[in-house]
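Exercise 4. Each item below gives a protein and its sequence. For each, produce the structure-token representation.

Item: MarR family transcriptional regulator (Streptomyces niveus).
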Amino acid sequence: MTDRSLWSYKEIAAHIRVQPDTVRSYRKHGLLPRPDHVENGKPYWYADTVRAWVAKRPGNRGRRE
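Answer:
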């Protein structure tokens, strides 16, 4: 089953338990995957894209997916 819901910085931050500004910083430093969608200049990622990124990111210590 594919989860194609779009997540903003806020949803990504909640998923990995950090502040939205932290997620913005990750993107600024090239640590996030490219957005799957951009609307009115705001980036969004599919939930599955985020979950795959979380599973592969350094420092992932069994955080929820």
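Check: The mean pLDDT is 90.
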